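for the recovery benchmark. tokens below, seq after
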């Protein structure tokens, strides 16, 4: 099964999944340097339904949010995410927010990390259920980058 899909292909897959009674969970993010916090978060998100879709910020989208990033290119980030057992599908989006993607896919559940209040999560007005999952203490991409810079510079 191909796990990294274009939006239009994923939209068709979501329709089939929902028609088959499957509960679709959606999350999104940069996932620049994958770490244990990401892995735990994605497993928790997947446990909220039958299928987990990750909307991945494109390289240009990441650089607008986090200057100097991403460290890893979007295709590489998508491939790494798709290799995780918890992730069923990955799609790359270039918009400032995933709102249009969420509206197109119509997931049952929307999930973000603990730095988001449920009512502030983009797309929460579209889905039936929205969750803000807790962070894993001591696990952050920024922290990893800072540690590497201290070691080498």
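predicted aa per position
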């Amino acid at each position: 099964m191909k796990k990294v899909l274009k939006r239009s292909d994923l939209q068709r897959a979501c329709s089939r999944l929902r028609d088959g009674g499957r509960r679709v969970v959606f999350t999104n993010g940069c996932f620049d340097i994958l770490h244990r916090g990401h892995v735990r978060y994605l497993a928790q998100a997947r446990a909220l339904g039958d299928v987990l879709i990750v909307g991945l910020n494109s390289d240009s989208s990441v650089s607008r949010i986090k200057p100097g990033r991403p460290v890893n290119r979007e295709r590489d980030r998508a491939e790494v995410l798709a290799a995780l057992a918890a992730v069923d599908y990955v799609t790359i989006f270039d918009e400032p927010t995933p709102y249009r993607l969420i509206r197109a896919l119509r997931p049952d559940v929307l999930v973000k990390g603990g730095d988001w209040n449920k009512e502030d999560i983009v797309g929460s007005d579209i889905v039936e259920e929205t969750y803000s999952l807790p962070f894993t203490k001591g696990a952050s991409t920024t922290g990893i980058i800072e540690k590497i810079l201290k070691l080498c510079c």
